[in-house]
Amino acid sequence: MADPGFNSGTLDAWRADGPASVQRNAAGQYEAVIPAGGTDTRLGTTLRGLVPGKRYAASVWVEVQPGRTRRVTLESGGARNWLERSTAKDAVGIDEKSGTYFQRLTVRFTATAETAPLAVTAKAADAAVKLDDVRIVETTKTEKDGTVAHWDFEDGEQGWGPFVQTEPGNIRTVRAEKHAPYTQAGWNGQLTDQVLDGDWSLKSHEEGAQLVYRTVPQTVRFETGHRYRVAFDHQNAFAGQYALSVGYDRLAGGGARTTETQRLPFAQQRTTARYEHEFTAGDCGDYYVGVRKLGSAPDQADFVMDDFTVTDLGPAAEDVACATLAVEPKTGKLVPGAANKVDVTFTNGERTPATGVRTSLTVPEGWSAVPESSDTVASLAPGAAAKVTWLVTPKAGIAAGTFTLAAGAAYTAAGRQLAVTAQTAVDTVPPGYLPQDRIKVLDVDSEEAAAEDTRAVMALDGDPATWWGTAWSEASPDYPHHIALDLGGSYALKEFRYLPRQNHTNDRIKDYAVYLSADGVNWGAPVATGAWPDSAAEQVVPLDGRQAAYLKLVALSSVNGEPWAGAAELNVVTQQ
Asked: Most exposed among 234, 359, 361, 397, judged by the fewest C-beta atoms under 10 Å?
């Protein structure tokens, strides 16, 4: 086609029916701009050199003025697709539109002749529209009867099928190509297949904690009041590392606000299995589905997807709540036999006030949960949030484990009785363990924060995949090294536990000394000394019931002769 990027600075190669012009944006890029107003505008051109019988995908970057609504339709080869709002920011760092609300609008068709018309139409509305970079490529993608959307990732088109990146981050998701045996489970210790079916799958590799990818209305359209089934084949290296994310976008001010309504962690699945989830799209905004990464990224924390399918199950009778609920302990791990504070936060996503909001919290058998004050909130304006704190007491003497807390909230909005639920997994500390989140770093002689995040607090985060490591990028101070801990109170101490860095011999301590103190100033002689092996196994130092409020680990040498010290996890156990 002629002038697909409007780089001539004019619309001479296009047929313009209605007001439109070509303008440069702040980055100097040419864009076609359709101004807000009471007139429809249609920009048309002709695609040439098509091969009859072949499939094509035609697309264009589109941004409807953020915070406003205007229907924009792309038509070509007898196919059409549209959007009404731009609510999802492009967060792909290398995209020229990164940081804007531009997203691609695509149609697919089978050519019946060597030429085909292509047109973009913007209906009259009080919102400007920007267009750029029209593209036409061959594709093998076909639609699947009886579905709203279906992708097998074999089509060769740009991007990740129906998904886009809308949160900034160093995303490592790709369409992975099969190259057996090297791409499949078992090769060189690989835990999952990189390709599940055919020659291509969508693979996320050791992502950071964020929404990795999600749909937008022009790729998967969810109709208000309808129930949908989302299904796909998948493999997941580790339980709880990735989750299905369901939510909606709503215009807010000069942009949009995204609300996640469901976050459903995937179980470990190292052979291909089908995953299915059903939900009803409410009158809350533009719905999406996607995949979220949870927590840190241990080695090979990969998630692989194929055969993504969305099916419309028809109108649903249920009223869908737009409010959301979150459950979060005020501290990390819960202490059995003690009252631990857990916050239940209700956010009113309705367009009208929520009244009579009554929360509940269901805990495992043998536990107790009571609200710190009232469990009810009288009224909340749209967009407002309220927090109810519960006192949760796990059963005394239970072994360390992971347990589920389930919260609920019933409320009234616009005369409708609505309810919303949420749940979270909480861990309990083993008998006698001091919760790490109640231990503070009093002092550390060195830590790395420039080239990577291995600050001292990483040794108290409950995650063996992260670690405290001394500085190395700008300087590498030599031994001895130390880290001092404020235990948050005075205790009779049974033992100190040191978990070395798990993925490398760097930072592992060999010769050590442990000191105790009542005030964090006067330490005296070491209460324990010794040498640890070059191992990833946890090392235990007996403390024989000594009373102390502070503990200091002094590292005297490393297992590999390098100048760095560190720890994946540090734990202190009290006398029972």
From this structure: 397
